[in-house]
Every structure is written in C-alpha cells, then in structure tokens.
Amino acid sequence: MIPLLSLRRTVPLKCAWPQPPVHRRESGSPRLTGRLLANLIGATVIGAGLVGLSGIGTAVAEDRPPALQLCFDDDPNNKPTLFALLDGVSARLAVRFDIVRVPWARCLLDVQSGDRDGAIGASYLPERDAFGVFPRDAGGQPDPTKRLSTEGYYLYTAKDSDLDWNGSQLLHLTGSVAVKINASIITKLKSLGAPVIEVNSDWASLFEMVIANHAQATAMLSDRGDRILNQNSDVSDKIRKIPLALQEKPYYLMFSHQFQNAHPDLTRQMWATIESVRNAPVSQPADAKTVPQGRPDQPATSAH
C-alpha cells in the first residue's frame, strides 16, 4: 500500500526512525501528471465532489493532484499530534500528503506563491488573507469548527519577576517581551503596550533570553513552552509560567489560493473531514502511518 502521509525536510537528517517514501517534484507539475493519467484511464470517480457533464450522461471527479504539498514549522518542539489527525483525514479521503518542515516564514511564502498547497497550523490574521485561504462560516468569518486545534499563548518570565497578566493589562511591565519572528501574538502584545523583540531562533532560545535578562518575558504557545520546562530543569528552576492565557486561537490548515481555485470541492471536503476526524473518539488504527517527530538540523526562524 502506498503511504498517504509522508514527511521530509529541506536539510539532511540523522534519525533513528526510517524515512518514509516521499513524493518529490523534479520537473513539471504533479497536477499535470494527474491530468494526463486521468485522460489515459478515462473518467475517474472518487467519493464526493462529482460534476455532471451536460449531454454526456456521465460524471467525473474533480481532478486531484497525486499528493498535496504541505509545509509545517520546523521547530523541534512542535507537537506531532497534528500528524495523527492528518493521517485520519488522508485515510478517509484517500488523499496523500507530502509534508516538508521549513521555517514558518518560508512556509507562508511558499503557500502564497503556490509552491506549496497548504500550511499546517496557521492561525488567522487579516493580513494572512494575502497568503492563503481559511475555512469560513456562513457569515464569512473564519470557522473554528474546521480548525486543526486550539492553542494558547502564555507569558513566561523569571521566577523573581513581578510581571503579571490580569486578562486586560500587563502589570509591572518594565522590559520587553521576546517572541519568534512573525508570531501571531505580536499584534496582541503591541496592543497592550509591550515592547516586542522578534527573534530568528527556536522556542528554547526565547527562554535563554529571559534567563540572561535580555527580555523580561517571552510569549509562546503553551504546548511548546511547557514541554521545554518539563524536559529541562535548568530552565524550569529559573522560569515561571503566568497561568492566565494571553490569547487562545484556533489553528487551521490554510490552503493556497491556487489550490482552492483548482480544487474547490476537495478543499471543502478537507476542512469538513478535519472537523469530523477531530471530533471522533480518540483511537489509533492498527495500520496508522503517523509520522514520528524527528529533530531538524536547523532551528526554526518563525512562529505561527
């Protein structure tokens, strides 16, 4: 059976787990290959999304690419659970995902240019409408029921710091807040009057800035921050987490404008299936091909 979910990176890896086979673009367009194959074998009918052809009395499926080219933030502290969700989506729709880890800023640019079909784990900002498309509700707003996950940004500061957050304002703010470049939390922090330092590095480096007194605090997704604290006593001995979330947001599979224009039915099916798989009882199929979480050789340069 051809695996429906594969992961690769743009840098060589030295991993204990075997690398899954991947679909690679060498030259030309994989979508063109899909069309040529469809022409050779005749009309292909795949699940939903059937389009009737007037006067012919038959139906053909919306042309599908051999694989969806997706990108994902390359930070080693990113959680692998989204791969399990995408595994379920690929199985239900018989769609293969070719996933590459790259710095987040590059991922967004690749989606904007159409070099990638989508970005995994993008939160919505109005300016990101220029990069890709998000699922929308009947009122035209981003639809959180079609999210991949919900995650919260929290503040982490030195244990001897008086900094606090009461849900409406930052108390005893005397320094700057370090964040990853292009992080969606930047807008929130600036609205609260916090000086922001954007850093081209991984999540762990933000804690190092606080410990070295280069920043009063750092703001990061709690899943990443908590994991670092739990795994590094030298960090947890010096850093505390402010318990009230600074901001919680839904995170989506954002598709490129080019992909949605070429595959509108598949785009809608993908978002609907994400909702269905996410709400399904937690289970791990016996033949699941969830991709393990390897560590990239280079740090990430941006955040979601």
Molecular structure report:
The chain has helices at 30-41, 81-93, 104-113, 186-191, 203-211, 222-231, 233-236, 257-262, 264-279; strands at 5-9, 50-52, 59-61, 68-73, 97-102, 118-123, 149-158, 164-165, 170-171, 177-180, 196-199, 217-221, 239-241, 247-255. The two termini are 34 Å apart. The chain is elongated, with a radius of gyration of 21 Å. The protein has 9 helices and 14 strands. α2 crosses α9 (264-279). It is an alpha/beta fold. The chain folds into 2 domains: 5-18 and 31-148 and 251-279, D-Maltodextrin-Binding Protein, domain 2 (3-Layer(aba) Sandwich), CATH 3.40.190.10; 151-248, Periplasmic binding protein-like II (D-Maltodextrin-Binding Protein, domain 2, 3-Layer(aba) Sandwich). The strands form 3 sheets. Strands 1, 4, 5, 6, 7, 10, 11, 12, 13 and 14 form a 10-stranded mixed β-sheet that branches. Mean pLDDT is 77; it is low at 9-60 and 284-303. The protein is 28% helix and 22% strand.
What can be said about this structure in brief?
The chain is an alpha/beta fold and 304 residues long.
Largest sheet, strands/sense/barrel? 10 strands, mixed
Oligomer: single chain
Number of domains: 2
Strand content: 15-25%
Report the total helices: 9
CATH architecture of the largest domain: 3-Layer(aba) Sandwich
Task: Give the overall average pLDDT.
Answer: 77
The helix fraction, in percent, is: 25-40%
Name of the top-level CATH class of the largest domain: Alpha Beta
Radius of gyration: 21 Å
What structural category arises from helix and sheet content? alpha/beta
Fourth CATH level, the homologous superfamily of the largest domain:
Periplasmic binding protein-like II
Number of beta strands: 14
Uncertain regions spanning at least 5 consecutive residues: 9-60, 284-303
Q: Termini distance?
A: 34 Å
Task: Return the string of H and E elements.
Answer: EHEEEHEHEEEEEHEHEHHEEHH
Global morphology: elongated
Fold-level CATH name of the largest domain: D-Maltodextrin-Binding Protein, domain 2
